[in-house]
Amino acid sequence: MNISSFRLAALSWLFAPVLSGGLLLSSCNSQPATETGQSATDANAPASAGSVMPTGAKPAWGPNLGPEMQAVIEQLMSFDNKPLPELTAVQARKQPSPADAAMKQMRASNITPPPMQVDTVNRTLVPGVTGRIYTPKAGTAPYPVIVYYHGGGWVIATIDTYHSSAQALAEKTGAVVVSVEYRKGPENKFPTAHDDAFAAYQWALKNAAGIKGDPNRVAVAGESAGGGLAAAVSMMARDRKVALPKYQLLVYPIAGSDTNTASYQSNTETAPLNKAGMEWFFKNYLRTPADGKDPRVNLVAANLKGLPPTTIIAAEYDPLLSEGKTLADNLQAAGVKVNYKLYEGTTHEFFGMAGVVPQADAAQAVATDDLKGALK
């Protein structure tokens, strides 16, 4: 299989076995981020813990790719995944994920994860929707609550795949995190995932005390499709007169349905996500192209007034880059306080890879500082 065709596929996630020890959480590379998201010294400097270095040349699509990020992408390519457009959703869910690639790089670099600082339990939230609850081992209840939505284009991936991000948020913010396993397409088309996400948020408000949480300090967070879900939940809460989240963390969110933006056009070959992959996700989740114009999907054209303060994390090599920046600008124009951070040298999916990618450690620090400030 050639490299170009692999890049069409590489957002094919599966259940990453990351539940024993939080493999991708903390890094010895914690350096303060600049306004562009680079480290205060050099965003492309090699990791200080273990030897995280690529073995080949940078890909043509990523001339500014950081060495640690490149090393993870090389591990992802070693899986020889098939392109998403050639697969059914069931087949795509069985392929190795970027989380698997990061764990493989951690093993290659002899990076040992620290012990988990949270307890976890799985439970049914509402009919058809399960979740994993992360409760800090330290601190004093009641804790703030973060309702977290994983990525995967509303089609693939699970709370297992994104375990590292949920664990990081719980450990670093000192909050109870409810990671939501919403239903996915094509078996459950739009708006199922969006309705599930809102139902899970309402469950968290109603049941916060029973999970050692404070119902008056609840935020939402998500990555990729989950970032879009988090913002949609805030809009639904506003419109349906439900208590608003105190904050929203949107990590490279799917915020529009236009696949001809500048970043889509410049990211046709990128891994782990590119234009063809996103078109496949839309095809599998949306009932018709008209669903792409729904404000819950097309956030960049939605009414954003009255939404909670927001942090948006962006990656350099990502077809979703343009719409994420447009969303940030539109939120500000609507009077919403926004902290927008672009992390150069990174790709889509970097946020949960703090064990190997220093920009991920920096992004997690920004996200958790903002959440802690809002939930204190």
Question: What CATH architecture of the domain at 118-375 do you see?
Answer: 3-Layer(aba) Sandwich
Q: Would you list the SSEs in sequence order as H and E?
A: HHHHEEEHEHEHEHHEHEH
CATH class of the domain at 118-375: Alpha Beta
CATH superfamily of the domain at 118-375: Alpha/Beta hydrolase fold, catalytic domain
| Shape call | globular
Number of strands: 8
CATH topology type of the domain at 118-375: Rossmann fold
How would you characterize the largest beta sheet?
8 strands, mixed
Question: Approximately how much beta-strand content do the residues carry?
Answer: 15-25%
Strand order of the largest sheet: 1-2-4-3-5-6-7-8
Radius of gyration: 19 Å
- Uncertain ranges: 1-49
Explain what this protein looks like in three dimensions.
- This protein is of the alpha/beta class and 376 residues long.
- The protein is built from eleven helices and eight strands.
- The chain has a domain at 118-375: Alpha/Beta hydrolase fold, catalytic domain (Rossmann fold, 3-Layer(aba) Sandwich).
- Strand 3 (143-149), helix 5 and strand 4 form a beta-alpha-beta unit.
- Helix 2 packs across helix 4 and helix 6 packs across helix 7 (225-239).
- The chain is globular, with a radius of gyration of 19 Å.
- The protein starts with a helix and ends with a helix.
- 59% of the residues are buried.
- The model is unreliable at 1-49 (pLDDT under 50).
